[in-house]
TrEMBL record:
Stated name of the protein: Quercetin 2,3-dioxygenase
InterPro entries named among the record's database cross-references: Pirin, Pirin_C_dom, RmlC-like_jellyroll, RmlC_Cupin_sf
Domain Pirin C-terminal: 1-40
Origin superkingdom: Bacteria
Gene3D superfamilies (UniProt xref): Jelly Rolls
Length: 40
């Protein structure tokens, strides 16, 4: 089995950390904080 996903490039920066994908490392840190506090 195979999944093929295609689309237009977003032309935005990409930052990833664990299960989160955001635009900046600061957004990654905020996502981890929100998740740990149950807001995500």
């Amino acid at each position: 089995r195979m999944i093929l996903v295609a689309g237009e490039p977003l032309d935005e920066p990409i930052a990833r950390g664990g299960p989160f994908v955001m635009n900046t490392q600061d957004e990654i840190k905020q996502a981890f904080s929100d998740y740990q506090e149950g807001r995500f």
